[in-house]
Amino acid sequence: MRSEITIDLGALRRNVQTLARALDGAEVWAVVKADAYGHGAVDCAGAALGAGAKTLCVATVPEALVLRAELPSARILVLGPASNREVAQARDAGLALVVASDEIPEGVAVHVKLDTGMGRWGMSELGSPSREVVGVMTHLATADTDAVFARTQVERFRAATEPVAHLIRHVANSAAALRIPEARFDAARCGIALYGLSPFGTDPAEDGLAPVLSWTSEIAQSKLLRAGESTGYGRRFVAERDTWIGIVPVGYADGFRRDLTGTEVRVGGEHRKVVGTVSMDATAVELDRELPPGTPVTIVGPGVALEEHARVAGTITYELACGINSATTRARRVVLDAA
Ligand SMILES: *Cc1c(COP(=O)(O)O)cnc(C)c1O
């Protein structure tokens, strides 16, 4: 097997409990869209509910239907828009829908979305809600980066929804759940923090979170480059002196992106740099000596944070996690389910 991805559901349960403590009475809703940010939606949804999350949130009706087949009694909320056909499916499957316009479908539980500053989906004003409407929500643009603007959005929302305070009101994402108490209302829609990744791009331990996903592989081959020889497409790494490199059989098709050149992984317990161009199926690391085939490589795990890879790639952990293929034929997927 080229690599192994381990999903630690015990860590996910502890993250749910950490969020519940931070929320001080407001409900944790588990956001498991995009296959639980690449972690596996059915496994993560079940574990999150078992740890006390009250509702599952996904982006699309098809995502919700996959969960419904496995979890017949779960509360499931679809955050994104639905076509007419999907509204009918949602009704049949007992899903709740977020609606961002004043056309409220009948016979299905609806949460109305207000735009208080995200400038994306949502209505600018709340009309008088029909009886299908059970909740009202908004989404924060800067909970992770600008708490002042986030609080402005929270106050706009509070003022706009005061007349319907009997409905379920929800505003917070992970960042707000952890650090903006005013955003709590009745529930928080938590995604990234469930997976033990920091919404702030810093060390998740700062917020009491533990990463759920780890990713390991091994050195498939060590090779001595003589001075002037190169590795990989485009000859982007040319050895200045005799240099051992190790080839790891993982590349961008597995989710180890091309812009991760220069990041570090752990090889046999030591930090080693990724050099040259990451190719579809292989990545080179610079070694200080020859290592035998089979030497373990930690791509993501203890001592190798996804936040650090995101910094090197100029992106966020969300995007990297979504790209890691945990359910393909390329990686072995191991689910740890210790209670
Ligand atoms: C994806 C999403 C969330 C979860 O955000 P995190 O930062 O991952 O916690 C919450 N609300 C909405 C509307 C979303 O689309």
Superfamily (CATH H level) name of the largest domain = Alanine racemase
Main sheet: strands, sense, barrel? 9 strands, mixed
* Helical residues, percent: 25-40%
CATH fold category name of the largest domain: TIM Barrel
| CATH class identity of the largest domain | Alpha Beta
List the domain count as a whole number. Answer: 2
Question: Which descriptor suits the 3D outline?
Answer: elongated
Mean pLDDT score: 96
Number of strands: 19
How far apart the termini lie comes to 28 Å
Query: Helix- and strand-based class?
Result: alpha/beta
Low-confidence stretches: none
Q: Main sheet: which strands, in order across? A: 11-14-17-16-15-18-10-1-19
Reading the helices and strands in chain order gives EHEHHEHEHEEEHEHEEEEEEEEEEHHE
Number of helices: 9
Oligomer: single chain
